[in-house]
Design goal:
heterodimer, A: 141 residues, mainly alpha, Cytochrome Bc1 Complex, Chain D, domain 2, two-stranded antiparallel sheet, 2 strands, 55% helix, B: 232 residues, alpha+beta, Glutaredoxin, disordered N terminus
Chain lengths: 141, 232
Amino acid sequence: MRWRAADLLRLGGFLAAGILAAGCFTDRQNAGARLYAQHCAHCHGDEGQGLKRLIPPLAGADYVAENRNFLACLVRRGVNGPMVVNGITFNQIMPGHEDLTDSEITNLLNFVQSSWGNKGKPFTIREVSEKLQGCAGSDGQ
Amino acid sequence: MMTSLFTRARRAGILVGGSALLLLTACQSQPDTTAVDRLPYLGEREVVPRADGGPADTLYATIPSFTLTNQDSATITNDTFKNKVYVADFFFATCPSICPKMQSEMLRVYEKFKDDPRVLFLSHTIDPAHDSVAVLRDYAQRLGIQNASRWHFATASHDTIFSLARAYYVPAQKDSTVEGGFAHSGAFTLVDSKRRVRGLYDGMNPDEVARLIEDLPVLLKEEAENASQAKL
């Protein structure tokens, strides 16, 4: 009877360790998704769908596919004024994100590049830092 | 050792069972929101004795008189909402934080009730210096609202808007430390045909907005009953 209890404890330990480990990995994998939910989803929507003619979509957006070199600076510095996405002219203010590190911007962009049917080539942190130097926006982290 | 394990296990079981019971009773004592037939009245109330000695009247807090201008340049007042119920919120066109999310949730409510002329919508700008009638019209049309027949996007003087926000129980203030320059809550306020506030919902929370969508028919039923009683 006693070994059963011990076994249960051991099994519980394994399970707990497994859950903790899975938690670690999941967290890392989802860094981009978490950053998106925190910084972008309120405007661009949970599915990158945008909002009517008010907020441009990110899902299936030609702008995202065609402006790879500008995306990092767009997140860092924000954007203001008319912008054509999928044939529709949007005109809203997007705030910049001085609070994100280069590697967070990389995670964020790679989440957008690989979500909702988007199939953009992933960024490396080095590439994002290089692009951010174009708008004096790299923090080298 | 074994017995002590068992005793502990049993104790634990009793504890778990006990707390489950507590949880269950806690659940039961919660008001059953799905089965309400009357929405509450929010705010201060006043009991006024009647001169003829009849049962005292209860007066509920009401939205004060207002005069606003909507996206079609038309003047709107409380009379615009006469015999209607409406949902009010506060936003501004260049708001980079919560507004797109709350207006997309408001749009969800609008879509549900757009064929019911008894329900109107009223979005106030808290940035009247920037949000001119033209800006409001552009905003509304970009959201898919072609005219103000059902959903008003309204402006007035800064003071008028901010004192109205208080009446609708929506905290709003100028704050240069937040993005966009204004701090405000994403609350939706449900108002009945007698200017009384009957519900407050967090417009940033889809579950709360779902509650609003459930509450609206309850209020409409009450309004219909009151209207038919008034005719008798």
